[in-house]
Model the fold of this input.
Amino acid sequence: MEGHDLGIIIASRKSKLAQVQTDLVISMIYQKHKLICEKLLLDTKGDRILDVSLDKIGGKGVFVKDIEIAMLEGRAEAAVHSMKDVPYEMPEGFEIVSMPIREDVRDVYVSMNGIPLEDLPRGARIGTSSKRRSTQIMQLRPDAVMVPIRGNVQTRVDKIERENLDGIILAAAGLKRSGMECIITQYLDVEEFVPAIGQGALGIEALKTSAYIDILKSIEHHETRICVDAERSFMRRLNGGCHSPIGAYARLQNEDMYIQGVFELNGRLIKKDILGSKYDYIRLGKLLGEKILNA
Done:
């Protein structure tokens, strides 16, 4: 594909981070194929309704549905999502055709005054809208007061001061991609603070009939794909969305895959892990889910 052909129209949410992530994909496609792509910016239901928790307005799919409609109507050929926003059931005719290399998977603590989590005063106010994050924070700091906050990265950072919070929990990947790494007070170790399923990974969604499938697949990172698919297999087994605290992180160790998972079952937060062949990644995720259900 030589020359500067006008390329693919790629749908994105309007937030700064969503656009940065879409630009990353556009630049990967350009580097590989010299194809200039365009963004189609969309407002999703999840972006419009910020005063209600996600599980009340339809779960994580609220960030994806309006974008899928644009693809069905032919206004865009593909879309870039944060994989942690993508429900495990894909609508008929769509697929995640490609996952580029994953960013840092960790959660981070961003503090008002540089004080790490363990040194905060009793009753410290910590902002997050994620049940997974708040449940795990309460394990580390049972005395903390969790304050629900939603909105894009910058909005949430601004709320530290506006809502008189000691700090907030965010994903390292979003801050790094937005060039805001310098505000991170503390990285939370994945061993004690399990990330969201697919955290740090991007997924490129398209219709299965798209003429651009091969181009989109060309920027796939195989290791990212099998690790995220293993985490999503764990989520599918537990039928987990944002209604219940759930997290998982898969990583490769030579020919093996090691997955940690966390899930709240009957009011108890259960954490388990599993090690097995990386070639058996979908089954490993499922087995880890069963391990938790049988705990």
Observations:
- The mean pLDDT is 90.
- The CA atoms of residues 136 and 193 lie 6 Å apart.
- The first helix runs from residue 16 to 33.
